[in-house]
Task: structure prediction
Amino acid sequence: MNTLSKIISSNPSEKKKWLVASLITIFIAAICGLYVNFTGMNLMVFQAWSFISAAVASLLLALALSASSLSYYFGWPDMRWGYQKQIGVMAFWIMCFYCVSLLILYPETYWFGFRENIYTADMMLGITAVFIFGAMVGINSKIGSAYFSWETIKFVLGLGYVGYALLVIRAVLIEWPLWEDWFSTFEGYPPGRLMLSVIAIGVLLMRVSITIHKMTIKKESLKS
Result:
């Protein structure tokens, strides 16, 4: 931990923040690529890139959203480092690439059939989540932050947990039959979206636990 702290440093420059975020992204992409290879998924090259981009975006979001929770309980990472913004922005743009890949891979649903499918849970949850993450990136940028108070910015950034929860619900609705089959046999590797959803739920529960913990402390202080 001390070694990692020295590498990251407590006062990183903007350039270093982007460099570290990029290295983290490359590392996660490599892990996801190995997962696709080891599981023997029968995917075309572009399909594999689409799957990997979705996984990388989800894991980067997990890192960005869990940083404050981990810091609350363990004092690490030091929130003054400020890497969450860069990691979150990387997650958003990779998510945008994933959305474009869906248009290419499934035009009958997301392109030509957009009007017919706009009100499905798949589309509504996905679009809402992307809109939330886009708002987070925009309001926390140098240009966007100049027009809003810190309270407003903090509120919008907090909506990231809502967007993340929507993606979990979307994954459950889309892949539940596949997950159900795996749960009934436990044969082969667990589905990728299942693993990502478990991680996401862990991040969300950790955040909820902080709220409960603060409320408990407040009640105890009032009693005393």
